[in-house]
Amino acid sequence: MIVEAFPSGVVYISRQPIFLAAVLNRSESVFNLTHQMGDHKYIYLDIEDKDGNNLLHAAGKLAPSHKLNEISGAALQMQREMQWYKQVEKTISPSSRERMNNERKSPNMIFTEEHKNLKQEGEKWMKDTSGSCTIAAALIVTIMFAAAITVPGGSKSETGFPVFATDKMFLVFAISDAISLFASTTSLLMFLSILTSRYAEEDFLHVLPKRLIFGLGTLFLSITFMMVAFSATLYLVFGRKNAWVLIPVAALACLPVTSFVLLQYPLLADLISSTFGPGIFVKQSNRPFY
Rounded CA gap, 212 and 76, in Å? Predict the structure, then answer.
């Protein structure tokens, strides 16, 4: 509204270039106005302050604490900071991306210095989360592998063929056990890859979040099918003549699955939204801006 009334306000508002102030304060609603500008926007996007800092230098500085606190988890905070840096890098002209300020510092140097502590906190958060999930995945792998060898009801001594091999519920058990084993093994590998990652700054943008999403997703699958396999086993061994057994078993089997969803869904939802969602850098209107 200010710029519509006073077009020259696009250059300076409160003694500072408007887009530079928007990047420093992580105000995406103001910065997104660049999407509504024509090619003349580079005149305003390549502007520098009195210290020689351009928009990418501003993106390299740590966001205000109140903006960081809107995002849960140091790793997701680091991801958002990388998203800002990459978006500004795409927005400004190529000649401004490696420009030094008055202190002879490039934007990348400032980003590394300013985000050193946040990067360490993000690495610790990722490792702690992956370490906890690795234990769960390893236990499921062990259990499901043992269940595949010692099938419910045992095997016939003459042929070694499972006793309940012709039962439809045994097929449910076999399929569920296999899916759970493969899913938990995949989940374990994903979490191990996070633990052994190099943790470069750009890894927080896509690589690490995608691995964590895939690891949590496959872990959920393994827990779900583990409960299905366990329920099928109880039915084969104890419930063949007592069908009512399936009711409490099914109800109790849903408990750990539901608990996992309730506990991990907020984290998984934030990860998916931040990594695969439309993001915060979107065109707000088709109306030309200045």
Answer: 11
pLDDT of the residue at 141: 93
Q: How far apart are CA 227 and CA 244, in angstroms?
A: 18
Alpha-carbon distance of 266 to 72, in angstroms, equals 10
Question: What pTM value is reported for the model?
Answer: 0.85
Residue 115 to residue 205: CA distance in whole angstroms: 14
Residue 265 is part of which domain span?
A: 122-276
Q: Which helix (H) or strand (E) holds 222?
A: helix 207-238
- Any residues with CB less than 8 A from the CB of 71 and at least 6 apart, and which? 77, 80, 270, 274
Q: Identify the residue with better confidence: 22 or 36.
A: 22
What are the CA-CA distances from residue 206 to residues 1, 92, 123, 267 (Å)?
36, 22, 14, 16
3-state SS, residue 143: helix
The residues that bridge with 155 in the sheet, in sequence order, are 162
Q: Are residues 171 and 36 in the same domain?
A: no
- The CATH number for 54's domain is 1.25.40
Distance of CA 251 to the CA centre of its chain: 31
Structural tokens at position 270: 């934030």
pLDDT at 232: 83
When pLDDT is cut at 50, 70 and 90, the band that residue 156 belongs to is: low
E strands, the chain, are none
Residues 54 and 136 grouped into a single domain:
no
Write down the pLDDT at residue 11: 60
